[in-house]
Amino acid sequence: MAKSCLNVGLNRVQYSVFLGTITPNEKETLVEIFLDLIDEETDSVYVFPMSKDELKETDLLGQAFDKKRVTDEISAMFI
Fold first, then answer.
1. Which end of the chain is more exposed for a tag (fewer CB within 10 A), N or C?
2. What does the alpha-carbon distance between residue 22 and residue 29 come to, in Å, rounded to a whole number?
3. Buried b (16+ CB within 10 A) or exposed e, 48-79
4. Within a 10 A sphere around the Cβ of 22, how many other Cβ atoms?
């Protein structure tokens, strides 16, 4: 799953959290890949769309990622 996220240009911001700009087609492809990989009875994957403005309003505590790295509107994949 991580390789798929990285392959579409998402950035790893925590061990299992990825953030970046993807197209609707890339999002659909990732969802299909994830559905093939997970056990829907026991696993969870969350996909949250988020704009740049919404990201700016996010409270990041502790060792958060650098919000300056995100410069475009985001269709983010959080895993």
1. N
2. 11
3. eebeeeeeeeeeeeeeeeeeeebeeebbbbbb
4. 20
What are the residues whose beta carbons fall under 8 Å from the beta carbon of 48, sequence distance 6 or more? 76, 77, 78
Tens of pLDDT, residues 13-51: 888 889 888 999 999 999 999 999 999 999 999 988 888
State pLDDT tens for residues 4-14.
Answer: 999 999 988 88
Cβ burial, residue 20 (10 Å; 0-12/13-18/19+): buried
